[in-house]
User: Fold this.
Amino acid sequence: MIIDTKSLFNISSFDINVFWRIMLLLSVFIVSLILGNLYVGGDNNGYRAIYNGLKGLDIVNAYYFYNYIITTVEFVHFILVWTASNLGIDRIFFLSLCNTFLAGLFIKIFDSFKVNFLVTSSFIITNFYLYVLFFTGERLKFGFIFFLLAFLYRKKLPLSLLFLILSIFSHLQMLILCLGRALQLLLNELQPLLFKFEFRRSLLLVLPALGIGLFVIQTTLFGKILAYGDDRTLFDFLRMGIFFLIALYYTKDKMETVIYFSTLFMAVYLVGGDRVNMIGYMFCLYYCLPYRGGFNLGMLITSLYFLYVNIDFISKIILYGNGFPPIK
Assistant:
């Protein structure tokens, strides 16, 4: 038997693009396992207690226990961690899988924008906000996962809407991101009615879903405004302003950008800037990534800044077990 060694070692027979994406995702998984085990402080104490305490509990008692530690109507995180805990999956392993899936969604979206893979890789490996989602924003992580799924399936309205709802009930802050998307969906459905007098049945899904969602979360929403209303600084507005100017420069629809960022500036005023600025950065990415495959000044400036911040963040995880150690 003659073995064709030429084809056996021919890497081109396997899609090299797929290979490098798999390698990138594998690196995310490994880094998540390492830093996830090192990150023992901050909110992780509460999340760890929840994950361990849910094991063996039925869903009713588990929910009472969960709400005893985290008082919230954002039930998606509870369902996911209760399921994983009772399946006997190690918490860090489970979260590392979730981090890898989140990174995969970003890669998928970046590819749809025809972003150069070097830009994609640098974002996945070095971006501070992404690492915050990986290691500190446990509920927010799931919010972003479902939001990105909603974006990927935006042409399938019922499925996209379902993912938007799950995103909001993963973390209420996702309402800020989802609001822009929901308004876009609503306008798309209203246009045939206003200009062609053509009624779409899908409109019956959009309006009740928005109304019910806002009604259910109104108490928690006002609670968060009262709790975080004073957590804002001039620097928060400055960062959002920089993201806005970058987005405005690269956008083709300046009015849309102004409307989106107006809601974000209001959110900074109401609930503070830390995580709202993360959302502002995501909007900024949406507008500047398609330009020259991500090789542009806006991406360069923000990438270098977040690389610098992320080095400090990772160093603190290694030294203190907490990316945001309390100042003594």
